[in-house]
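re: ur msg from earlier - yeah i can do the nicotinamide-adenine-dinucleotide complex, just paste it... oh wait u already did. ok heres what im feeding in:
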Amino acid sequence: MRILVTGGAGYIGSHTVLVLLQSGYDVVVFDNLCNSSRKSIERVSSIVERQVNFVEGDIRNPEELGSVFSKYHIDAVIHFAGLKAVGESVQKPAEYYDVNVGGTAKLLLAMQKANVSRMVFSSSATVYGVEAPTPYVESLPRGSTSNPYATSKAMIEKMLEDQSIAHPDWSIALLRYFNPIGAHESGLIGEDPLGIPNNLMPFMAQVAVGRRDRLAVFGGDYPTPDGTCRRDYLHVMDLAEGHVKALESLYKSGCCAYNLGTGSPVSVLEMISAFESETGVKIPYKIAPRREGDLAEFWADPLKANQLLGWSAKRSLNQMMADTWRWQSQNPDGYN
Ligand code: NAD
Ligand code: UDP
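and the outut:
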């Protein structure tokens, strides 16, 4: 079975490509490299000791997409390609809707033309909106989103639901990720954000490796046990394995959403102390003002993915820290 992986050179995509290849799938990666490096795919190749098909192209370009579908027989698509920085999406809404929503519509048209009707989509816990009670469960409606990135994910989910209603032979899994962190245990691939990291884990890892002076902990006065925000962090390899489970579920038609998270919340201060105790490296930090738009806490109810996909997150927080540190310390400047 051959899978087209859009955005496959990126953080989650590269780990998923690795797991797909190790599970016996053929893969074609399609990525415009706007937020990634070809080196991630070269490293995946070296781990699996196999060439990986790579096509540089943009999901908004029907010719580039069309030529991939004509060159390769594709059985299903895993769609990671998109822009993902919440803050940037507030500054550049048109770009975010163009790439995320417009790009996905172009991808659906190309799939239709090529008679490919199975897709796994990278959605996000952010579609539950700002008022949903935690833990988030899939039966909740999509909520009111607070930034263009989140709205683009909710719009794409709706588009994919409409597509599956109009075409009952289509099968789509909407995977709502919580907070993926960590890296492959080889230390060869990992998260390599451009510029100053927005997310907690890569920022902390860059402080640890000496690229940044100290971590700002955004808010110490939240109504949580230690006053800092709590999130559901899961290992990127568990997340990657979730995609293979979701692919296996696509023999039945329809559009189905699944939470991929551990079900356990962890605070920012607990993240710092887990990193320090696992690696022995101190993280200088300071409590700073709250970051606009942050929710105090949310985590997954992962029961549906447990029961219907046979998936659960297996790797511990300590392993997430150890693997992050292996990647960051072996590659202080990422893929550069
Ligand atoms: P990433 O930026 O590392 O990967 C996205 C990839 O898509 C990059 O390689 C980028 O070059 C590519 N891309 C972007 N625009 C493209 C276009 N127009 N055409 C072709 N390729 C394009 O991000 P990631 O963390 O690996 O996230 C992957 C997906 O998962 C994204 O859709 C993201 O919104 C979603 N997601 C991520 C998280 C997270 O915390 N990392 C959480 C929830 C959902
Ligand atoms: N956070 C922080 N300092 C940082 C980055 C993030 O204290 O430099 C906090 C942030 O306020 C949130 C948590 O860490 O409570 C996770 O943030 P991240 O951006 O990684 O994920 P998201 O907010 O998208 O869940």
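cool cool. Residues 179, 198-200, 203, 215-218, 229, 231, 268, 291, 294 surround uridine-5'-diphosphate (ligand 2) (CB under 6 Å). ping me if u need the other ligands too
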